[in-house]
Structure formats: C-alpha cells, structure tokens
Design a protein that fits this description.
CATH topology of the largest domain: Nucleotidyltransferase, domain 5
Number of helices: 9
CATH architecture of the largest domain: 2-Layer Sandwich
Largest sheet: 5 strands, mixed
CATH superfamily of the largest domain: ATPase, nucleotide binding domain
Shape: globular
Number of domains: 2
Structural class: alpha/beta
Radius of gyration: 18 Å
Oligomer: single chain
Bound molecules: adenosine-5'-triphosphate
Mean pLDDT: 94
Order of helices and strands: HEEEEEHEHEHEEEHHHEHEH
Low-confidence stretches: none
CATH class of the largest domain: Alpha Beta
C-alpha cells in the first residue's frame, strides 16, 4: 500500500537490525521503549531516524497498561538496554516511552520510573496512538492497536487523536481459545499462534474473538466519521485478521508490514 510506504520502509529496516545491529557511528542514538502487557520492545534510531538496533522480550510485567511487576520491568528494560549497548559499542542515553489510552497519572509515573530506573533519560512520554502515528502518518480514520491484553481504539481527525478508548480483549484471548481448542497449555498456544505457518488453520478458530474485537471497535467509533481502519499491535500480525474486521465493519481495514513494531518505532521517532 502506497500509504504505508514510509512506515513499511522503517519497519523493514528495523527487522533487519534486530540481532544484526548497524551502528552508524552516530553517538547520539534515540531509544523507543514500549512496555506492553505481552512484550517489551526497544527500538534504537540514529539522529536521521534510521533504525540501528532493536530487541524485544515477552514478559508479564504490565497488565491493562499498569506496571504490575515494577522490579521485573526495570530488570528487563535494563538487560535489553545493556544488550543493545554491547551491540552498538556505546551508551544509550535518550529514550521515549508511551502510555496506553486511559492510563492514569499514577501508571504514567510508573512507566516513567521504569525507563529512568533502567538508566535512560526520558525525553518524551506520549500516548500510544499518537506514537504509532509518527510513522503511520494518518490524517483521518481510526488506529486500532490489538496488543496482548487490550485493544486500543483512537479516532484521528486531521492528524490529531480526538478520541481514545481501551478495552480488555487482545491476543491473550486468542491464545486462550487456541489452548482450549487444541488442548495446549497457554504458552504452547502462544508459540503456535505466533508461527505464521499456522495462521491459515487458526483463523477460523479465533474468528469469534476477532469479531468480538470488531464489535468493540464499532461501539467506540459510533457517531464518528471513520472511513479507514489502520491496524497495529502484535495480534494484527495474524494473517487475515484485517479481512475479518473489514467484513464485520464494512470499513476498509489495512495494516502495515509487521504491525507489532509500529508503536515502538513511532515512540523512538517522537524524540
Ligand atoms: P498491550 O498493547 O495489550 O499492552 P503489548 O503492547 O505487549 O500489549 P504487542 O506487543 O503489540 O502487545 O502484541 C503482543 C501480542 O501479539 C501477543 O498476544 C502475541 O501473542 C501477539 N503476536 C505476536 N506476534 C504474533 C504473530 N506473528 N501472530 C499472531 N500474534 C502475534
């Protein structure tokens, strides 16, 4: 899609530098820290906005946008930071982070403290859909972020987020359904789901959960003029998810390449 040209280029560059850093000799790197319910992602960009390194780890330190394991979260961010510093042979100082829609002041303090306690200077803290839109560059429509624990819905008008909502349905619910249907443990179901080779087979199994997400989207965009839905978040990696949502909503639904990295890269771009 032409509209994702910039976003897909930066995501492709980012995927290439995960585990294969590409230090540009620039000592002034910026790190985007995305603390999610399922996954913590660090994306490092150089001053020109080009991805140079990245790392992520699945973790259960955040629930519904709230840091529930504070020490665990600091530990993971610090270890990922150290790993990237070793790869790039430099210290990473400047970071930005994002807050899920509906996060209150107390939680935003926790996210800020985690990033700082891990050794970063926090230069920017923005909301997740605004972060994602740094690279999506959408003017009008809705950004729907289907993560691990929640689905965030943001309506945009003329490039600005005008309405947000967050509902507790996400990839975790897909994994629970898969675990039940295949008699797998939750962790086995998670791994099975993340393998794109299984997506075609899994789509009918998880379709009711995706339709539930679609009905949540319908509720939150009611009365708004939304002509296009832009999907981000790890769950949108599922092949065919956009088709199920489009069919339910009758609204054109698109996603960038690897929607899981849109928000972390947008965060890093925001500095
Ligand atoms: P939240 O937004 O709820 O705080 P998060 O930011 O941790 O969560 P993401 O990292 O955007 O969420 O997405 C994590 C979810 O994406 C998990 O449920 C994971 O199983 C799912 N996921 C990751 N990769 C894939 C894949 N290739 N196919 C299907 N699902 C995937």
């Amino acid at each position: 899609e032409q509209e994702f040209a910039y976003c897909n280029r930066i995501i492709t560059q980012f995927e290439a530098v995960i585990d294969h850093p590409n230090a540009t000799g620039d000592d002034d790197y910026y790190t985007g820290v995305d603390l999610g319910t399922a996954c913590i992602v660090l994306a490092v960009l150089d001053r020109t906005g080009k991805p140079v390194a990245g790392a992520y780890q699945y973790a259960n330190v955040v629930r519904d946008g709230m840091v529930v394991d504070y020490i665990g979260a600091i530990d993971i961010v610090r270890k990922l930071k150290e790993k990237l510093e070793a790869q790039l042979h430099t210290e990473l100082i400047h970071a930005a982070a994002a807050l899920p829609p509906g996060t209150n002041e107390l939680d935003s303090g926790a996210i800020k403290n985690v990033v700082q306690a891990a050794g970063f200077e926090l230069d920017n803290l923005l909301d997740e859909p605004t972060a994602a839109n740094q690279i999506l560059r959408i003017k009008d429509g809705a950004i729907v972020d289907i993560g691990g624990g929640t689905t965030g819905i943001a309506v945009l008008k003329n490039g600005t987020v005008t309405k947000v909502a967050d509902e507790p349905t996400g990839g975790t619910h897909l994994s629970l359904v898969i675990a039940g249907a295949y008699r797998k443990t939750f962790d086995e179901a998670e791994l099975y789901k993340r393998d794109a080779a299984n997506h075609q087979e899994l789509l009918p199994v998880v379709k009711p959960v995706i339709e539930k997400v679609a009905s949540i989207i319908t509720q939150h965009i009611a009365g708004e003029k939304v002509d296009e839905i832009y999907l981000v978040g790890g769950t949108c990696c599922l092949t065919g998810i956009e088709g199920v949502i489009e069919q339910k909503l009758h609204i054109k639904t698109v996603k960038p390449q690897n929607p899981m990295f849109a928000t972390p890269l947008g965060i890093a771009t925001s500095i």
